[in-house]
Amino acid sequence: xxxxxxxxxxxxxxxxxxxxxxxxxxxxxxxxxxxxxxxxxxxxx
Length: 45
What we know:
The chain is an all-alpha fold. The chain has one domain (3-38). It has 2 helices and no strands. It is rod-shaped, with a radius of gyration of 19 Å. It starts with a helix and ends with a helix. Keywords: Membrane, Transmembrane, Transmembrane helix. The chain crosses the membrane at residues 20-42.
């Protein structure tokens, strides 16, 4: 229960969140492109 290990766990949590956000940022445009290109009528209406 010492503060150092708690801080380390918090750092690992932040790194995990940062990786998830990076993955979302990279994947979202691909999904939007696929969603926008495959059904053009849906994306334009």
